Amino acid sequence: MLEVPMLDVRGLEARYGPVQVLFGIDLSVAEGELVALIGANGAGKTTLLRTLSGLVRATGGSVAFDGETITAASPERRVRRGITQVPEGRQVFTTISVESNLRLGAYVRGRDEAARDLARVYDLFPALAERRTSLAGELSGGQQQMLAIGRALMARPRLLLLDEPSMGLAPRIAAEILDIVLKLRDSGTTVLLVEQNAAAALEIADRAYVIENGRIAMQGTGAALLDDRQVMSAYLGLD
Amino acid sequence: MLSQAVQFLFSGLTLGAIYALVALGFTLIFNASHVINFAQGEFVMIGGMTTVFLVGFGLPMPMAIALAVAAATGIGMALEKLAVEPARQASITTLIIITIGASIFLRGLAQLVWDKKLHALPPFTGDAPIGILGATILPQSLWAMGVGVLLLLALRWFFARTLLGQAMLATANNRMAAQLVGINVRRILLLSFALSAALGAAAGILIAPITLTAYDVGTNIGLKGFAAVMLGGLGSSAGAVLGGLLLGIAEAFGAGYVSSAYKDAFAFVIIMLVLLWMPRGLLGGAAAERV
């Protein structure tokens, strides 16, 4: 691959206080790809996403987006450049209305552009349109996840970082959310997906990385990793 | 009998409007940072004292007021930039102690720049009392209540209708998510100090013609504002206004019917009662559980 990948991560290290969590992560995402990141709890998936969105500061290595180094950029600057994270546990603004949550998603863009995109998000998530005046805290878990994704889309991200979007949801709702992730990829948004449901993630992903103890242990196409015996026993709970 | 009660109500609402503005200042900063800014009263003092001295230099009142509010706003922003921001990684308790230090510093500075005397600001529009329902009200009281209401409406509009106001609410609700939508939460914190200093200064200017002002009035009025916050519920803007008004009314009626010697004690009795039986205050929600 001669072309520069959209996201190019080299030797990334990060720590929480004295505890090192990431030990030299190498990872790349090409424009238009849906890449999954799977691994056990505590392997460093969330930390990796937070380092990519700028919430956690890297202590080593580099992150390049569109060929430009952004390793030390603030979360705000990364959003402006086109990287938006949907955080684990949804993190909607519970005391604010659904529609205001979405408008805040377009904070770095203009008001007029936000108005246009609202229709697009309501189209994607009709359930949100019905509850536009409700407080976000009153929504069900699935609706809050839709709102979290919708809010992120309002920033018009070129790279969407999704952290455990199906966590804590009923299987039917979880499948619905992953369907939407696939739809987003098909409409041109590049996606890096962290998922605890490894089988479901590998099924929709173009490529995937397996992360273990803060290091990339394996990588390959989604289909190849699904067929891998080691991955199956470790992450899919199958023998 | 009725006229006496109406009289107390007027003076209670006047004080209450002032306490509400101070309490809102506490709330703005608390919501942006979870810091209780004990230098809040000093903004009140700076507003009143600066106006007194600028008027003394011969400046027209409106210009003196505008400059005093600007000065207090600048000092509020400097406080955030020079004292709070550098200690961003410190615990909330440390930050609160820093604001106590800042309040002592500002009081000392005021004593050096000005003096230790009491000063009176002339009322905005004369001092001929107006008779209503057998009671009398000073024009300055009407100014305090009227401007208080206008400032409240302006704040309401700001938070409900502007993107920046919504960004402040969002940051208060979920700081991490605010960062993820691209809100610069440090700028929000700076803005909250600026707004809250401006509100405090406005309160200090409105009340200075009624209660006089001096370098050390901030301590007392700051504590009253804090009592109003505790009564209304930490973190709630509506609670701050309600708490301020109730405290002002309680003080006026207490001073009138019990004894004016205990006027300042009511605020502290209220703090104690609230902490004992209603630690979340009247309108405090989940925010208070952090304390």
Q: What's the total count of β strands of chain A? A: 10
Residue runs with pLDDT of under 50 for 5 or more positions of chain A: none
The appropriate CATH architecture of the domain at 1-82 and 159-164 and 189-239 in chain A is: 3-Layer(aba) Sandwich
Share of residues in helices of chain A:
25-40%
Provide keyphrases for this structure.
heterodimer; A: 239 residues; alpha/beta; Rossmann fold; six-stranded mixed sheet; four-stranded antiparallel sheet; 10 helices; 38% helix; 26% strand; globular; B: 291 residues; mainly alpha; two-stranded antiparallel ribbon; 2 strands; disordered C terminus
Describe this structure in words.
The complex is a heterodimer of chains A (239) and B (291). With 239 residues, chain A is α/β, with parallel strands linked by helices. Chain A is built from 10 helices and 10 strands. Chain A has a domain at 1-82 and 159-164 and 189-239: P-loop containing nucleotide triphosphate hydrolases (Rossmann fold, 3-Layer(aba) Sandwich), CATH 3.40.50.300. In chain A, the strands form 2 sheets. Chain A has a 6-stranded mixed beta sheet with strand order 6-7-8-3-9-10, sandwiched between helices. In chain A, helix 3 crosses helix 4 (111-124) and helix 3 runs parallel beside helix 6. The longest helix of chain A has 16 residues, at 171-186. By secondary structure, chain B is an all-alpha fold. Chain B has 11 helices and 2 strands. Chain B has a two-stranded antiparallel ribbon with strand order 1-2. In chain B, a hairpin with a 2-residue loop joins strand 1 and strand 2. The longest helix of chain B has 32 residues, at 2-33. Classes of the chains: A alpha/beta (239), B mainly alpha (291). At the A-B interface, helix 2 and helix 3 of A face helix 6 and helix 7 of B.
